[in-house]
């Protein structure tokens, strides 16, 4: 998988990376792997019907199916089921910060026990011949065990590791500490995928330069700029980087609405479109006016009408979707970095000091 150039992953995002959204992003180009949101595995067998809702190839990208759970028997069976269902990669969630997941001892809560992480990967390793990966945060409330956990996972048989270098207690606050990625790259015998705060195409090249990671994973940065993977691909090839203008953003929303049309009731469709607008809207340099107007609409038709009026004529300069830009924080908006927010260095020191 990692014999050629660095791979580009479209990150798993609960409630967002449904099959049609993955399809659209993959079709835009520049994406090597798309990921399902986590599929929850409890102490009951994973239902093939539940799994089927998450499946769905997105050619030409490969499909990574993520499972989240800590029951050894069920996680082994889940890996088997996912393999049979047609996944290309099986991934274990070791990062979900949601209180509900933590209360059940899954996702980021598993980072408190390297032994448990290792055991779960061991049973999954026995259950699948597919590439097996884990996606982890830097730790639960400190990062001191990040290397120990990552090494245990490698020892237990993962083929590659994705690291989002924030702790669970950070949720999405502050900035991702890329130095933790560099640490793992330098010490692990397996490829490491770097994730966290890649907001502009240029950031994807910078994270590789600064950490040596074997690939990049983008979540919110791709929602904010649906054409970012193509921009990254162009930069990597030394080709001119495609500009993104308002008509392209509008067309993206229309394409999404069309993909949702057949599969969802109107209310769900409008909600999901608004979720996308929450990210795309932050790239529009209009003080949040498009976003506010779109949120007030009651139907997907009305939302698209607002998008048409406000976006179609915007030139690239009216959008913050160039190759590079200011360091952004959780919102994906430059507005968020104005004022007294902590700097990249301050946040990095806080989480890195324990490593
Ligand atoms: C709305 C939302 C849902 C997410 N759901 C998942 C998930 O199901 N599984 C997972 O491993 N990470 C999930 N994440 C984390 C992302 O995959 C990614 O690690 C994180 O957003 C940092 O990357 P970014 O800065 O490129 O967004 C989610 C993030 C967001 C914003």
Provide structural commentary:
The protein is α/β, with parallel strands linked by helices and 355 residues long. It folds into two domains: 7-237, TIM Barrel (Alpha-Beta Barrel); 246-318. It has helices at 19-28, 48-54, 72-85, 99-103, 114-127, 146-156, 178-187, 201-211, 220-224, 228-237, 246-263, 266-280, 289-295, 300-311, 344-352, and strands spanning 7-10, 33-35, 39-40, 62-68, 89-94, 132-139, 160-167, 192-195, 215-218. An eight-stranded parallel barrel has the order 1-2-4-5-6-7-8-9, surrounded by six helices. α2 (48-54) links the parallel β3 and β4 (62-68). α11 runs antiparallel to α12 (266-280) and α11 (246-263) runs antiparallel to α14. The longest helix has 18 residues, at 246-263. It starts with 6 loop residues before the first strand and ends with a helix. Mean pLDDT is 92; it is low at 335-355. The structure holds flavin mononucleotide. Flavin mononucleotide is lined by residues 11-14, 16, 37-38, 66, 93, 95-96, 135, 164, 195-198, 218-221.
The total of helices stands at: 15
User: In the CATH hierarchy, what is the superfamily of the largest domain?
Assistant: Aldolase class I
Share of residues in helices: 40-55%
Bound molecules: flavin mononucleotide
Keywords:
single chain, 355 residues, alpha/beta, TIM Barrel, 2 domains, 8-stranded parallel beta barrel, 9 strands, disordered C terminus, binds flavin mononucleotide
Question: Could you give the topology of this structure?
Answer:
Blueprint: E1 7-10, H1 19-28, E2 33-35, E3 39-40, H2 48-54, E4 62-68, H3 72-85, E5 89-94, H4 99-103, H5 114-127, E6 132-139, H6 146-156, E7 160-167, H7 178-187, E8 192-195, H8 201-211, E9 215-218, H9 220-224, H10 228-237, H11 246-263, H12 266-280, H13 289-295, H14 300-311, H15 344-352
Parallel strand pairs: 1-2, 1-9, 2-4, 3-4, 4-5, 5-6, 6-7, 7-8, 8-9
Helix pairs in contact: 3-5, 5-6, 6-7, 8-10, 11-12, 11-14, 13-14
